[in-house]
Design a protein that fits this description.
Blueprint (H helix, E strand, L loop, with lengths): L4 H4 L10 H10 L25 H4 L3 H4 L8 H14 L14 H9 L2 H4 L24 H20 L8 H12 L10 H17 L11 H6 L36
Length: 259
């Protein structure tokens, strides 16, 4: 997202998707998938027929021609446009779209996480406090589906176009409205959905590439995270020095699988 000097001077009012804040979040956010560690049950965290094999997950979906598992074309267009504004491509590196974040979110929503299988999803359904966590009868997948539909409908009413067809500045304005809870999405809490979308975008950008996001380990390269190297002992005492080796994921790194 383009920034002026006045924008750079903003403090607490800054939107959460500036690169500076992204780097700060990356320093403290656990490098884990939205589905949590319990997904890893019998070896590699993927199931035949349910997700792309790890080797393919090292490459962007548009390069291998695979279809989304959960998203409809309209939903995919919305998510791709939204995450492209949340973490835009710039001179520091690829953005969320180039790093495969939509594929990561799609795969998570198609599985246990999307259904909220490990969550308490029973009533009562009274309005909760912000400190009480998830307070809706919809799981993440249902919330994405409902929110994408309502956002596109609202955009058509106001701008005669779907969200994905709006200009970048207009998309950012709509995202701000969601973040501030100033957009009516029917049964979907706009502020809650924005929080979920932002969380999943970060997870996809920082997680291991085996989950479909962080293509070519773009997120890790941005912050110098070494990944899953088996032995870090030679570098433990080298304080203040950048780590000299490229990052390694659970399935190695792309150069190991070439030719």
């Amino acid at each position: 997202m383009n920034r002026t000097r006045d924008d750079a001077a903003r403090t607490a009012a800054d939107p959460p998707w500036t690169r500076r804040r992204l780097l700060t979040v990356g320093a403290v956010l656990p490098i884990a998938a939205a589905g949590d560690a319990a997904v890893i049950r019998d070896g590699m965290p993927w199931s035949e027929g349910r997700a792309a094999p790890p080797e393919q997950a090292l490459r962007p979906e548009r390069e291998r021609g695979a279809a989304y598992t959960f998203f409809t074309p309209a939903e995919a267009a919305f998510v791709e446009a939204a995450v492209a504004r949340l973490i835009p491509e710039d001179d520091l590196g690829p953005g969320a779209l180039q790093a495969g974040v939509p594929l990561f979110i799609d795969r998570q929503l198609a599985g246990d996480y999307g259904r909220g299988d490990r969550w308490y999803m029973q009533g009562p359904w009274a309005q909760g406090e912000p400190t009480q966590g998830w307070q809706t009868r919809m799981g993440p997948a249902a919330m994405y589906r409902a929110a994408a539909r309502e956002i596109d409908a609202a955009a058509h009413r106001e701008a005669k176009a779907a969200f994905a067809q709006l200009g970048a500045s207009d998309q950012e304005r709509w995202l701000h409205r969601m973040e501030d809870g100033k957009l009516d999405l029917g049964n979907v809490d706009a502020k809650g959905f924005f929080k979920l979308l932002w969380q999943n975008t970060l997870e996809g950008y920082w997680s291991d590439p085996v989950y479909g996001g962080n293509v070519d380990m773009a997120g890790w390269k941005l912050i110098g995270f070494p990944g899953a190297h088996y032995d870090m002992s030679p570098y433990v005492d080298q304080h203040g020095k950048p780590y000299p080796l490229p990052p390694v994921g659970l399935r190695g790194r792309p150069a190991w699988h070439q030719g």
